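Q: Structure tokens for this one, please.
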Amino acid sequence: MGRESTERPGYEILSIVTLHKERILGGKQLTLFAENVEQQKLMAQDVAKAMKADVVQMKSGDYLVIRV
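A: Here is the predicted structure, written as tokens:
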């Protein structure tokens, strides 16, 4: 059987780390803005470690910190 349309996803987005403010539309996640790519990567790793979560890099270059 497939997933039901009312079933909640098995993950939670805890944080997004981006270089572009215009990509943020809102939500309950922690949103962090980095000054450069290296800082962005380090911030995502630090937040994930603190929250015992995983980091996913999107094709756009933004990082999501998610808990599965």
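A few notes: The chain has a mean pLDDT of 91. Residues 12-67 form one domain.
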